[in-house]
Amino acid sequence: MSARRAWTGRGLRRERWHGYFFLAIPLLYLAGVVLLPLLEAVRSSTFRIRGLRATFVGLDNYARVLGDAAFWNALSVSFRFTAISVVLHLALGLGLAMLVAECGRTRTALRIALLTPWMVAPAIAATIWLWLLEPQFGVLNWLLRAAGLIAENRSWLGEPGLAFGAIVAVDVWRGVPFMMLLLGAGLATIPKEQYEAAAIDGAGALARFRHVTLPNLSYLLAVACTLDIINTVRQFDIVAVLTGGGPAGATEVLPALLYNTAFRGNDLGGGAAVGVLLLMIVLAFVSLYIALTGAARSDD
Amino acid sequence: MIETTRRHMSKITGALAVTVLAGGLLAAPARAEPVTLQWQTANLTEPQFEPVWKQMIAEFEAANPDIHIEPILVARKDDWTKFVTAAQARRAPCVVQEDLATSAYNGYLMPLDRFWATEPAAFRAAYSDDIMAAMHWKGALYGVPIWGGVFAEIYNTDMLTAAGLDAAHPPTTIAEYLDWMRKLTKPGQWGTAVLGGPTDTTTRVLLTWIWANGGEAFNADMTKATFAADPKSLEAIKTYLGLVGQGLAAPSPNTTNYLEQTVLFEQGKIAAVRSAYWAIAKMLVDNPSLAGRMTVGPVPGNGATLALLAPASIASSCKYPDQAWKFIKFQAEKKWALERARVSDWMPLRNDMMDEPEIAQDPLLQRFMQIGLQARSYPLPHPAWAEIGGVDVVKAVQRALLDPAHTEQIFRDLDALLNKKLNDL
Questions:
Q1: How many structural domains comprise chain A?
Q2: Are residues A166 and A234 in the same domain?
């Protein structure tokens, strides 16, 4: 049997089956941990669940959730939280990446030090911040008062505007290092010659950033932005620990609404409906990400 | 060929026989493995209670070698979520301590009447009818009372003396109470704290104010909410939440709960807390110098207050209900009730313990018990209570604290929301 025949005949079939076999293992795993729970969530969203009793209600949970002001409030909070956080992640991440890139011997040490917040588990980081922001005994109030910046202690997590600002600040504190790492890797790929040529042409620092750095990073920035939106819109840990969605819903992002509806509100069907709606939002951004990366592959 | 096959067959048969025999011997253990019962209550994570529950498990297992108790340690705020998740999967811990009406309505608990009926009359008579009524849902028994906590006003006597107030005669009317709070407030120190944090403790304290003012938050059969509809209730809400606006309560009420409130008290930032007896144990653990420097007064008003009842129940998915019942009865014994009162200030609910020296000679406990004569049981008996008490009322309190000018409208909206929920089962 010729080699060509082996590949087109029985040999190829055997290769294919081996491929299918090895592919089946991760597919089965994904089906078990992703697809089945997802289908169960979609199924649950069509039932009115009261404890161990469940009644099929079709799309009633969706109608109820969409007719509830709490959902639209959570959507608005999620939108603002995600937009502000992602912009700050990107801006500060890029700024830090450029600063670190300029450092000589200290670059690695600085990078590790700046990555520390990202290495801490979100719930633990949030618990630390909970005490830093504590109104009576927290370090932040003490520092600000000592510096003469505030006259009285502020309730960082008890007033709507401050609480929203606090969850954004903590999320940015945690999210910037990863963005710095990602964009730092992108910066390293930009040919030095481009900067040298721009400098010879008389371009200043701002012009070099605008005409060399940004165009070279545009694809990476778009991908990083999309990935960050997907991550940030699902943020739960920080909000759950710091505010639980309060005060009076001021920080209730969609994942917090999901949790509060399903568990604190004892409405698992309603919670599942919120989860499915959140999934649709995330899927929209995943599609954008796939479109972006797919287009880049086509260009290659 | 045939002979060879026969020899092989006889060898195989012999080997099989030996294997079966050996397997049979191995499969017959000397004694059965003990049954493992999981036990979940949020209190297992409280440090002062830890030595007691460990000792309790050790003594129970020594007396019942066929039962092994596996404690499930879970943070207080995650207790309900963990229980619901496990109950949904029909794998809830066998012995639990949860909101009785909500859990029973949802089918998470097992009726206990068949066990209760077979117990001696002396055991059944150890609990008052009122307490036992709170252990029932739709006529069936779902819990055995283990401990309770009466809400009262706890004062720092040093701060009272410094303000020229008589610790032996705490205020009994709301007007007197407000006067005391004014005298106890000075720069960096407040009379008390208003609770608006995101747990149902916010609701518990609000209810004490409403009831002590002669108001009602719900009608008798809990089909209608009257937070704003009842003038006495609305008046109490405005008075209580108004303490913040008057500067008589510590700032940042929307993040203040049991934990934050006790810390403020322990550090001398506030002079009074409305809490249950167990707060005293926690405050003494955190700040031992408070020993002998606290006094207890009634809830100002008509004296009506709230008593939290903690029952032990059996999850409906429990495979070993007989063993679980044994453990519940063991927990309910006098010895452990006394230990719980000693280390955690959880009040015994058995009425055959009042003459025990540890109880009769504890003036603070006696005071709480006296105040508790006018207490109403909590959680309120409605299947949606976990949601109402833990979410809806808390949100209304937070909104009213942020926008005091619209307190009445906010609680009217709450009434409207709850009227739907109370009747939507």
A1: 2
A2: yes
Given this model, what pLDDT does residue B25 score? 45
A158 and A13, same domain (yes or no): no
pLDDT at A300: 56
Q: In this complex, do B198 and A248 lie within 8 Å of one another by their Cβ atoms?
A: no
ipTM of the complex: 0.78
Give the domain extent around A31. 3-44
B301 φ/ψ sector (left φ>0, alpha ψ -120 to 50, else beta): left
CB count, 10 Å around CB of B424?
8
Residues of A in contact with B249 (CB under 8 A): none
Range from A84-98, A115-129, B341-355, B375-389 carrying the lowest mean pLDDT: B341-355
Residues of B in contact with A267 (CB under 8 A): 387
Q: Could you read off the pLDDT of B365-382 as tens digits, one per residue?
A: 888 888 888 888 898 988
- For residue A156 the two structure tokens come to 């960082």
Residues A182, A283 within the same domain: yes
Chain B residues touching chain A at CB-CB below 8 Å: 80-81, 84-85, 87-88, 90, 102-103, 105-108, 196, 198, 250-256, 260, 263-264, 267, 269, 316, 383-384, 386-387, 390-391, 394-395, 398-399, 401-402, 425
Q: Which of residues 148-167 of A touch B (CB under 8 A)?
A: 152-153, 155, 157-160
Tell me how many residue pairs between chain A and chain B have CB atoms under 8 A apart.
94
Check residue B123 and give its pLDDT: 86
Residue A117 lies in a domain: yes
Q: Are residues A129 and A258 in the same domain?
A: yes
Domain assignment present for A62: no
pLDDT at A11 over 80: no
Task: Please name the member of B81, B107, B267 whose beta carbon is closest to the beta carbon of A51.
Answer: B107
Considering the domain architecture, whether residues A264 and A166 belong to the same structural domain is answered as: yes
Low-confidence residues in chain B, pLDDT < 50: 1-2, 5, 9, 16-17, 20-21, 24-29
pLDDT one-digit tens code per residue, A146-187: 999 998 889 999 999 999 999 999 999 999 999 999 999 999
Q: Which residue of A has its CA nearest to B103?
A: A51
Task: Evaluate the omega torsion of the peptide bond into residue B93 and state whether it is cis, within 30 degrees of 0.
Answer: no
C-alpha closest to that of A231 among A200, A264, A253, A205: A253
User: With an 8 Å Cβ cutoff, is A51 touching chain B?
Assistant: yes
Which pLDDT score, from 0 to 100, does residue B26 have? 47
Q: Which amino acid is at A175?
A: G
Candidates B98, B103, B252: best to mutate against A (most CBs of A within 10 A) is B252
Determine whether the interchain pair B391/A264 forms a contact, defined as Cβ–Cβ distance below 8 Å.
Answer: yes
Instruction: Tell whether A82 and A174 lie within a shared domain.
Output: yes
Q: Please tell me whether residues A128 and A229 are part of one structural domain.
A: yes
* Cβ-contact A240, A259 below 8 angstroms: yes
- Asked if residue A40 and residue A76 are part of one domain, the reply reads no
Quick one: closest CA in B to A242, which residue?
B255
Q: Which domains are assigned to chain B?
A: 35-148+308-372 (3.40.190.10), 150-307+380-422 (3.40.190.10)
**Token duo for residue B201:** 């403790």
Question: In degrees rounded to 5, what are phi and psi of residue B153?
Answer: -100, 125
Average pLDDT, whole number, for chain A?
88
Q: Within a domain: residue A53?
A: no
> Is residue A241 situated within a structural domain?
yes
pLDDT score for B10: 53
Residues 6+ apart with CB under 8 A from B331: B56, B146, B312
In contact, A178 and B420? CB cutoff 8 Å: no
How high is the pLDDT of residue A246? Answer: 82
CA distance B233 to B248: 21
Q: What percent of chain A has pLDDT over 70?
A: 94
pLDDT, mean of residues A130-137: 89
Instruction: Tell me whether residues B255 and A247 touch, CB distance under 8 A.
Output: yes
Q: List CB contacts (< 8 A) between B260 and chain A.
A: 134, 136
- pLDDT reading at A192 higher than 50: yes
